[in-house]
Amino acid sequence: MERKLPAHYRVNDETDICLCPVCLRQYRETNSYLITRINREQTKERCDFCNYRFGYDYRIRSKQRLRYFVKGAEIRA
Ligand SMILES: [Zn+2]
């Protein structure tokens, strides 16, 4: 079962987005994305998702898209 994100926040390929811990969890709970922190030196910035709390930049990659590129390979988050 996939938990749905608001349509304009779904990622079909790959994107960089600033996420607070709460919104980061929403992405993780969909189990549809690989999520990596991209700038460990960064100070906290306003979250692009809720535009309220503060967090860090993450790279969000669609697992579906990755499977397309790596045929037959099993990918775990
Ligand atoms: Zn947020």
Outline:
With 77 residues, the protein is an alpha+beta fold. The protein contains 2 helices and 4 strands.
Q: Using only CA atoms, what is the Rg?
A: 13 Å
- Structural shape: globular
Helix content: 10-25%
Q: Could you give the count of β-strands?
A: 4
Order of helices and strands: EHEEEH
Q: Structural class of the helix and strand makeup?
A: alpha+beta
Give a quick account of the main beta sheet: strands, pairing sense, barrel closure: 4 strands, antiparallel
Unreliable runs: none
Distance between the termini: 16 Å
Question: Can you put this structure into words, describing what you see?
Answer:
This protein is an alpha+beta fold. It is globular. A hairpin with a 7-residue loop joins strand 3 and strand 4 (54-62). The protein is built from 2 helices and 4 strands, in the order E-H-E-E-E-H. The chain is 22% helix and 29% strand. It has one domain. Strands 1, 2, 3 and 4 form a 4-stranded antiparallel beta sheet that branches. The mean pLDDT is 84. Bound molecules: zinc ion.
Provide the fold topology.
Elements: E1 14-19, H1 21-30, E2 33-37, E3 45-46, E4 54-62, H2 63-69
Antiparallel strand pairs: 1-4, 2-4, 3-4
Bound molecules: zinc ion.
Notable traits:
single chain; 77 residues; alpha+beta; 4-stranded antiparallel β-sheet; 2 helices; 4 strands; 22% helix; 29% strand; globular; binds zinc ion
